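Hello again,

I reread your note about wanting to compare the complex against the isolated chains. To keep things tidy I'm splitting this into two emails, and this first one only covers the full assembly. Below are the input lines as submitted, including protein chains and any nucleic acid or small-molecule components. They are followed by the predicted structure of everything together. The single-chain runs will come separately.
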Amino acid sequence: MYLASTGALAQGDPAAKAPEQSEVRRGRVAGPVLALGAVSLVTDISSEMVTAVLPLYFVLQLGLSPLQFGFLDGLYNGVTALVRLAGGYAADRGGRHKLVAGGGYALSALSRLGLLLAGGATAGIGAALAADRVGKGVRTAPRDALISLSSPPDALGRAFGVHRAMDTTGALLGPLAAFALLWATADAYDAVFVVSFCFGLLGVLMLMAFVPSRPHQHTGAPARPVAKPPGKALDLLRVPAFRRILGAAALLGAATIGDAFLYLLLQRRLDFAISWFPLLPLGAAAVYLLLAIPAGRLADRTGRRVPFLAGHAALLGGYVLLLAPTEGWPLLIGVLLLLGVFYAATDGVLMALVTPVVAPERRASGMAVLQTGQAIARLVAAAGFGAAWTLWGVAPALTCACVALTAALAGAAVLLPRTERQA
Amino acid sequence: MTSLPSAPSAPSPPSAGPRSLRARIVAVAVAAAVLAGVAVAYTLHASQRAQSADTASEFGLDQGHLYFRSTEAGAGRVARLPAPDGAARKAGTTRASTTSRKDARTTGGPSCERFYAAAGTGLCLQRRAGIPPKSYAVVLDEHLREKRRIALTGIPNRARVSASGRMLSWTMFATGDSYAGSSFSTRTSILDTRTGYLIKNMEEIPLTVEGRRYHAPDVNYWGVTFADDDNRFYATVSTKGKTYLVRGDMKKWAATALRTNVECPSLSPDNTRIAFKKRVREGTRDPWRLYVLDLHTMREHPLAERRSVDDQAAWLDDGTLAYALPGEGGRKQDIWSTPADGSGEPTLRVRGGSSPAAVR
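Full-complex prediction:
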């Protein structure tokens, strides 16, 4: 029943849009998507465990300055952007999505052992961090391409929503597991690294066992990309619809000031103890987790353009709330809620938005280009906001961000193609 | 009856797919069980190791030893060395080991962020990660076994035990206050181990500055050092951007400012002099220099150490001071010592160590 209905849909059969059939599809998500979601869940437990404790490990255990750590972290995040393009391109060559993604997952898992073996040596830790980030960069685009290749076109939003919800569940559990471990072992960071490695390895094994290397494709395009090589990733930029989506994502990204700044602003406004700081991202992640699937389903129904824009409008609402004379709990809950809505309505939805305009054999490259473009734009935005904060102070910088985001929203509304929804 | 055999075989026969799926599920489940076993075993091992490190020590407090927090072998735990010859002779021991002092290090003490000991009492400040992070002041007996544990907030900074081992004091940087900047906030506690009386924050002590009772919301105390009578003490108070040396009295519960620009005082064993760090430069670049103040003449003189020292110096004996400096060659910290009269040269005492405490 399920296969039959998606097959009919792939051929553009209008009967596939019959309400009772949609009802059936709504309840289920393709097996590979669930498998990839489970892999991401387990991997995110692994990676967020380490991410959550690394600053403490560096500063309290190794005696590095937070500035050194911040520099190292920022450097590697920049490197990730380039690695991502390479990962996407490699995945498209011969359709090796699973192999490339699996390599990325394995590299990140092994980097935990690197942290363990490095002891306190800064060079060893730097290398382990780099390996982790390279692994993350390599795997993301092939994984999203696999999700898109495994899902019927009109259920992409839901598929990405389910994946992101599972992913975020892992991201929520990871820090909790890490701090529970530190508490139980009285600061045995090596135990955190070992347990993280075990989760990472389990993720790789699950990927190998349950994710098919050549997913059943729902796009109606030729199923085998081997016939023609993917060509240069930049060829994608000749597709007008892709160019417009990339432009819109970059434009909005360039007006996104970054979560760290939002959390810092919250801390300043509410004046709570620094030690509660790590809990803020958990609040936003919980909202993201709850709303990812509904937002994806909404995107499938209304077209992905609307939730993507609405998500950024929610972010704008968060900025305004920080500017307005809101105080106490309403401010805290409001900002975290709006930030969660922003992620739920944009992160997976953007991938669903771009899927129809990129041919299957270029899917991973296309997603990599889009993600990289967005990431670089956000990097520039964060640097710009940091500079504005230093030069003019908090309120003018935030006002600038509001104006920029409003302008970017207007621009993106014009840029984003309306024809994305398959009729 | 005859149709029965086909029924149970129905789920599996047509393709190898489901069966191989089951095989894959079993394989992953087995792998997950093995990995879970590894994770649990390692965590249990780590927690046992941590507990033994927390409470147990492989040695006690013995005269004629220099105790310190090691950042090399047994990192994060207290270690000890036979004391320098001068102190050893003073203590009446017959140790004659001028050779291979480096090899004589004994590791395996309690794990502490800061440590100090005198007579039969040790004071160990610990810090535990978590949300929020917790800190503890742990009182240790002459076998370095835990006697009392006090939960605190903040980052351990200074620890002192009076010469008799009765009076304890420690200072924490308060988290949440902007300690990272040039302004910071401290909480200093005093514990009388004989009565068990604990002053968690000594900020309320009546303070006299220039002959008048002084009131300000921004007073911060740190670096308490007790005299032999376990009643008189010295400390730093900071208020309105100035630091003062104060003399305090436990019985009267009062403090008097004696002079400005004195931080982290440390009273000599003969109770006649105070070693302290003096701010010689504004800003954060090399701000402090070690001085010794004569309490009879109230005259001060600088020590031979020319580097900036951010530590509460410890007297190894009446003629020698020890203190931690940022380490060389990748080490986090080293312990140096220098003569208390300002003569001579600083010498490297312990590679990879901090929190020196000579038990005499």
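For quick reference: The longest strand of chain B covers residues 121-128.

B.
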